[in-house]
Amino acid sequence: MKRLFTAVLILAVIAAGAAYVWRKDLGLTGPGQQVAGQGRGTGGSGGGGRRGAMRAGEGPVSVLAEPARVADVPVILEAVGTAQALNTVTVRSQVDGRLLELAFREGQDVKKGDLLARIDPTIYQAQYDQAVAKKAQDEANLANARLDLERYVNLAKTNYGSKQQADTQRAAVAQLEAQVKSDQGAIDNAKAYLDYTTITAPIDGRIGIRLIDHGNLVRAADTTGIVTITQIQPIALVFALPQQNLRAVNTAIQRGPLVVEALESDNQTVLDTGKLEVVDNQVDQTTGTVKLKASFPNGSLQLWPGSFVNVRLTVDVMQGMTVVPTASVQRGPNGAFVYAVEDDKAVLKSVTVSRQTETVAVVTAGISPGERVITTGFARLTDGDRVRVAEAAPTPETPPAAAAGGPRPESATNGPPRERRRRSEGQTSSTAPATSPPAGAGEAQAVASDGAQPRGDGQRRGRQQEGRHDTRPASP
User: Fold this and answer.
1) For position 255, which CATH number holds?
2) Model-level pTM?
3) Which residues does 412 contact at the CB level (< 8 Å), separation at least 6?
């Protein structure tokens, strides 16, 4: 029993010594303590001391910077609009009858006056013929009445006839003349109904999908119609802007026509360019917006009725303004600020931003043209930090030698670095003369042989210690 206790005690002492040595190699002097150099800083403790120690070890902060410049900045108002046909007509029948023919093709472009459909004209042709015949009958009666009137007037002059009979005949002639005019009106009415049986395009535009097939009975009271024609060249675009922008728009209209751009959903692709036509005469009180209407030539048919598009309206151009990249402007409790590069240090400067877009910000105070402002690396940056302005990463290109068919780089031909080292060591050992090594060469040869072992314990320990030395800051 005593021997067992002694053996356990010896093993415990050995384990404690091994643990102490292992912790010492890792740079830990006691439980819960941090690695040397990452704890308390000089004259303080906490996050600020650790952050300062880490920065002191890391060196200048790598950033990207661009100079402030002078440029003309357009004042742009953006909105979402709806494309609308300049004119839309639902073609309906004005008479009742059977639809004999549809003379159009769905999706066809038509001109004003082109034939679209024909309705059975039999009844209306008969009514027209009756009106024409009735007029001819009344015209014959009128001619006879005029002859009688002439006779009665001559007899009344010679007292062979009464004046009353002549006056009566004169009234009959006037009645027949009025009847002839009425007959002409009936003819025009019948002719109109007859013409309604032939339906033509009222405007230039594009035919939609037909709403009825030929052979059906159509009526003038039907609200469905036969087909719809939309005029899409030119085309209109209706959008709304907040009422706060109304003054700027009205002021710009006084200077001349305003350019309006229709954009794709990516806000980059310009579909068409037009001009502002109408500003609505009142503000919508429910939304606080005012409607505007612009017209576009739509030559390539990029705009289609009913589609939603992004609208960009240019109302002014700010001349000679100081601009910086939008990414350089930061926001804080005291407002907007930027980091300027002065003597390889980051200097915080408060700025006044009057207008900002996706790419540039217009600065009216706080920065001067030519000063470099930092655009990246803000997470590790404070006022007064030393910085290093890095160059933008170049676009990867094909190496000239590879492009010309010349020799490839060594890394692409001779394999990985470890394999090349093995090859070189093998060639050296095979070609070296069998002579006695000089003094001190045995130790170097032993080190080289240890390094050549692919998975030796010594190599693994060396890598671990090397990694620890690389990550552990130097002790003071």
Assistant:
1) 2.40.30.170
2) 0.56
3) none
